[in-house]
């Protein structure tokens, strides 16, 4: 299915080498100021060719709003946004048309549908993530303006190297979207070497939601972790997700893993007067659960890590099978993206922002009468 | 929301110390033979008190089918199944009524709804998983009878110890549901020691789907991994999921991570005649992707690992905060489950089976005209 | 599918002669005071045997809340409510087991599923409407308490006789739920004669929503009329629905059918002070559109009419076909409900109330940030 | 919400005077031959300016497929189709910008969202039905090719005149899409007179599904009538729907309304051999229920009638209210469509075809394992 979300919903379309990719955003709150520039910023963070270590496919990925915005504001009706594919060169696909590239979707699509658009991966191409980034840009804007919620991410692992330092200000200053300035130069060299050798490399992304509202998610099937996991694991090349300390918690005892609540009484200044209200603020001691306990957000920052495999398209020669049942060798020519994780950051942010906004709306619906 | 599934759906209800927990199974295929015994086997694998290392809460968890089955067969209409709570002792909850137990759902429910049934965790109690196991038992039966698909799981990690050996026949012979007979005795001792000390311990479960059909899942948002991740991460105490080699793939290069398709030409005997058809069978070399590539099942076994945190309820004294904004000490009395993973196995199997059946039905709908 | 609603949802189960019928209410707002008595009032208006002109099946239809209510209030988690079937006499169904009763669901179920519970109609029995009435009773209570919205209905046609007078106070004072006291005695005589002759008779119900909020429903597919039409036409025996002046509008010219908006400037007293705000109140001149224009409620009363066919079960001998392909005669013995419309009133009210509440919640979600 | 359908789904966008209107068709079966011409035929039946009695807005309404079709066949992925708006003259909307046109959506949108695109009705314009017709054209093609199901409709009432004769071959030969050749000339004159006077007129459409499969729809909430009613009542200007003999059944006794099943034993020639199988074929005597009983299709033709109000936009002067709370007079200039029913026919066919295909897929999913 090509629709995502319960209340804040996107429906996407488009193939790598078709005319366009695009999205319909449904049930967006009205009266939000919105223009192409609001969306373009994140599309630019996703687009190929943004640095020397990504695929050089030349796509400006300029978006165009077709509906749902009137006099600069959302109207509450469906917002269609489209990005026209420029780079539709009709090259010869003879060599991959009938071959199932290793770790690519070719085989599954072929078996499922009996047909597939083999040009550049067709619908399975990462170009579909443009639709996600568009939806996410709108969700981010609403979250920021209405609730001061901020969703951001960074690369916390490249290949075997994991980085602990989180310097938010550095992330958008380096092509790897790392938050650890000190480790960056050496890691960049590694990635350049991987690119040089016609190979690719994996990594991990950490996503954080600052000022996340308390009370999002629901008991049982609609746990916020479940909804986020679905969103994230629908992004191409993701192979794992863990919330908070994640798999490390599996190795602990309860006395180590448990994370006590801590209450502080704050003096909250009222906005409209000089009086002051004392308020209770709750936090957990170390936020080991990633801001979600029992499926419901606690008001701590939400954070989770996403494991991403190396780009499946590599230049090196590989073996695989073809449609005729023969085992063959293939060489994939042309574009080559040695590392996916930096470009995955805005996509994962987008999915997260949409889930958070969706659950803000769900919560409002049930508990806001 | 308390409904799970797209086409094969369950809707659940019930609290730990309410009258009953139960489930409505919707859109179940008709003409499936079904009786309570078909369900009870898995409920017995889930129930407390099944061994000396689980919580001793005494619940037989006998299920009762209220509707949807006629003359021993499903009718295609909704199937309601209920388990009556026996152990509803009205003990004094005074000590936890207003306290937010560490790593428990108390705080989130309270903030979200302004009210919570604090008796034994209410709706956040793991008793809700009875509904999942019931739905899963029906899904498993259909998968086995109609498609020869088998869903099973085992504990592949307890605390820091990971087990590589997979001896399927041993799993149901030991109370830890380990598949590694050699490591079992020592691990059991560790768990007993944890129990003795009033503490708990985490672990991991591996789930496998044998004879998984090819072509399940859909491009973009409905990837099979996304749907499974949602299902699994909605189970209490899960903190992470990884498909196939999962997070390990993040540390690899593409040339290491990629997993070529391999074709073999088989002589497939026709069932109804003596003629024989040559067929092509595809497999990947090592199934590094866990049987799902590009979001669609490949026909390889599906496999993934689930990280589960240690039981939050421990006997040891802990600090936390209460509703009044005070930081307090609590001691949780009564039942105590030192390890969740063995009982998690049938629950995770159930969720998996329901997702697989759901997607068999979705596939049939789109591609079966 | 056995689930109804987008946000305020019910999932139902149960057959005529099974153990029970029941419902799970999902996503109900928390902190609503709720007990069995709140629901029982409407169940009593639906139940058989409530007067001498309904089926004499003896069912008290006492409901029991199994979950979702704690200390007298809804907790926001799923509310299960069950009614146990008392009248499960195992009479001989030999004569209808293989026969397709005229205008009954027997044939369709048989063809669709290859199996059906033939005892009293099984799942197709009107007993399933108990679940609707339960869900509706909760929705009505919330609408009344939170928004002062009232949903009510009455019989405005019996057979060929249509009644124009609407005396709300008379409705619950007569067994036909007519709002026209003057026409009642004669109509009652007709119905009694129909009953005497072993026949049945059709009629129409009018439903009204007083103090309906403005702005419910959405453009395009989610028009409030569409959502109400689905809800209403899912009730057994309904064959038509028309909003406002309905089919009569088809016969008009635009200059006759159009219904101008009229604005009045009101002095709205503020609740908390002695100051007064002038407010604009809009109404249409005659509410020809039934309170919904362009799919969105206008703030006028919502009103529509529902055509209901005569009870299919009649005592008179009829011809029909059986499973073996023979054309046969049947006589349906036992219970006989000469007129459905009076008992349909609470069912149609229930469906309406759930749709209205659902859309209040949807509206809050999209426009309430 | 702007998505319609359970399995075969469309999501639509676009305003009257925006850049484009369009649709994403999701979950379409793969391997269906599809090109723009397949869709254009129905768009031409819907488009304005097709005859002298419709609005003269000059729009060719040429559709363009953007995705989901490869080498002339559907791929199973989402199909985007767009129609560019040509007639976007930037005329002066000063006179209707702040006025709530009688029986138009202006008021509701304004109250709901606090903003509306007032140019030509914006999202509430009937131009949104282009998306429906596109989705319906695809559904019709699949139904015809795979199941020989045909969905068609005609105008059976104009103003007060109802037509009983059904001559299918005449429908597309006259601009009123009447099926009664004899009544046509006089009715045309009436409509021309209405147009001349600056007024409009209502009417009714009858929709029929030939060769409808048996077993579509489901018990309780998913009754086929409920699903069709929702689909139909979401079309602009519809005010009522009745299935089969509809409201007339309300006036009958059971002995009159009931419709016995009739079985005939047929000799069904096998396609692939010379042997012949005797088959039983069931029909109802007069199909009073419109091909649906108990919510499930019987295999009889499905038929229902839809009441449509006269075009709200008339040339004659009218009173109404404006945003400032003043009661004013308005004159709507420019285009004027004196009768909606002929152009409604392809739209209602489209909605019907999508519901039928959707339920074929749902049925396959549940009962086709």
Largest sheet descriptor of chain A: 5 strands, antiparallel
How much helical structure, as a percent, in the residues of chain A?
25-40%
Give the mean pLDDT of chain A: 93
* Oligomeric status: homotetramer
Helix tally of chain A equals 8
Order of helices and strands of chain A: EEEHEEEEHHEEHEHEHHEEEEEEEH
Distance between the termini of chain A: 32 Å
Q: Give unreliable regions of chain A as ranges.
A: none
CATH architecture of chain A: 4-Layer Sandwich
What's the shape of chain A? globular
Report on this model:
Four copies of one chain form a homotetramer. Chain A has 369 residues and is an alpha+beta fold. Chain A has a single domain, classed as 4-Layer Sandwich (Chorismate synthase, AroC fold). The first copy, chain A, has eight helices and 18 strands. Chain A has helices at 36-46, 106-113, 129-147, 184-196, 224-233, 247-250, 254-257, 341-367; strands at residues 3-4, 9-14, 20-26, 63-65, 69-70, 73-74, 79-84, 150-158, 161-162, 203-210, 238-243, 261-269, 276-284, 292-293, 296-297, 302-308, 318-321, 327-330. The first copy, chain A, has a five-stranded antiparallel beta sheet with strand order 1-2-3-7-4, with helices on one face. Chain A has a five-stranded antiparallel beta sheet with strand order 9-8-10-16-11. In chain A, strand 2 (9-14) and strand 3 (20-26) form a beta hairpin. The longest helix of chain A is centred in the last third of the chain and has 27 residues, at 341-367. The radius of gyration of chain A is 22 Å and the shape is globular. Chain A starts with a strand and ends with a helix. The mean pLDDT of chain A is 93. The interface between A and D is large, with 42 and 42 residues. Strand 11 (238-243) of chain A pairs antiparallel with strand 11 of chain B, so a sheet runs across the interface.
